[in-house]
Amino acid sequence: MSDRRDEGMATRRRVLGDAHVDRAEARTTAFDAPFQEMITEAAWGHVWSRAGLSLRDRSLITLALLAAQGSDEEVAMHVRATANTGATPEEVMEAMLHVAIYAGVPRANHAIGVVRRTYAEMGVEP
């Protein structure tokens, strides 16, 4: 294993939590192992582990980008990760307002529904 992968795995666990990462690792097959290795090293090791932005800031940027793409499951996963990154519900809503202006009201409206449901599942009152 590379140092970048090790650093990526540590950051991935810090952001998503051990339980989530353990479930993902347990579901990994020979078919998707190359993808798991790539995202651990590239996304988590090369980008999320950089010192230029806080995990909170990266969390908000990621949520806005995922919402703009309509990636519901990923939005929900990264809303759950805010418990680890420190992004508040108020800050997440600010990110969704940016999505509305720069990616469109329908995308933001839909993502806000995903965010609300995810917070409800987490027992968080936004």
TrEMBL record:
<dbReference type="GO" id="GO:0051920">
    <property type="term" value="F:peroxiredoxin activity"/>
</dbReference>
<protein>
    <submittedName>
        <fullName>4-carboxymuconolactone decarboxylase</fullName>
        <ecNumber>4.1.1.44</ecNumber>
    </submittedName>
</protein>
<dbReference type="Pfam" id="PF02627">
    <property type="entry name" value="CMD"/>
</dbReference>
<dbReference type="InterPro" id="IPR029032">
    <property type="entry name" value="AhpD-like"/>
</dbReference>
<dbReference type="InterPro" id="IPR052512">
    <property type="entry name" value="4CMD/NDH-1_regulator"/>
</dbReference>
<dbReference type="GO" id="GO:0047575">
    <property type="term" value="F:4-carboxymuconolactone decarboxylase activity"/>
</dbReference>
<keyword id="KW-0456">Lyase</keyword>
<dbReference type="InterPro" id="IPR012788">
    <property type="entry name" value="Decarb_PcaC"/>
</dbReference>
<dbReference type="InterPro" id="IPR003779">
    <property type="entry name" value="CMD-like"/>
</dbReference>
<feature type="domain" description="Carboxymuconolactone decarboxylase-like">
    <location>
        <begin position="34"/>
        <end position="116"/>
    </location>
</feature>
